UniProtKB/TrEMBL annotation:
This is MSTO1 protein. Transmembrane segments: none annotated. One of its GO terms (cellular component) is mitochondrion. GO terms for biological process: mitochondrion organization. PANTHER family: MITOCHONDRIAL DISTRIBUTION REGULATOR MISATO (PTHR13391), PROTEIN MISATO HOMOLOG 1 (PTHR13391:SF0).
Amino acid sequence: MMHLAETLNFSGRKVVGAWASVPFPALHGSSLPDTLYAHQQDMPWKPLSSCWEPKGSCCFAQSVVLRGIHKENCIRGPGKPPPSPLHACESTEQVLQHYLHTLFPGAFSTSHVLEQPCQTLPPYPQFFSPLLTRQGFLLDRPPSHSSAAVESIPVLAALQSSPVLHTLLQGLYQDLRQLNTRRCSSFFAAGVEQDDFEEALQELRTLAQCYEMGLEADESDLDSD
């Protein structure tokens, strides 16, 4: 994980955020292009890190892995014209990569699609919606009979170096800056020097600034002045 985070960071950045979709919202019987085409405006994953969800899509670099999608989930019937560029891709890997490039233009993106799903057999908790099939795909309506336990699910996971981390790191810096170190005698008794603490605090502030973009960075420079 540490080496992957280093690969995704440059220009002084060191932190990545985690995102996931558990399960990946794919309809039963639909293709991967159909699923991603339905999520052109809203990303099909939620943050696992302590950062807010962005209204727009923007990141510097990312690594995305999609599990539990079979290769045939990309193939359309013969003679049918592709309704979108996503549907014109020849493989699931190309579909996901095209989607990421469209959603995050200019970002460095790596992606992998694995057919093996995530197993959810006991003792995995069965907290899933009744709309899920045993393989974790969504149904249009609840089944007429009691459905069996979900045995596996498709999952999408991502690590991103993105501007949303600025808010997280800047908030941490502000909280630590307000800390009254005189009340933390045990903390400094452990061997931490006041100068080292102040230096680490400034490094955190500098790290937060590495995730700013455009006007936000200019306003930060004015505030620091």
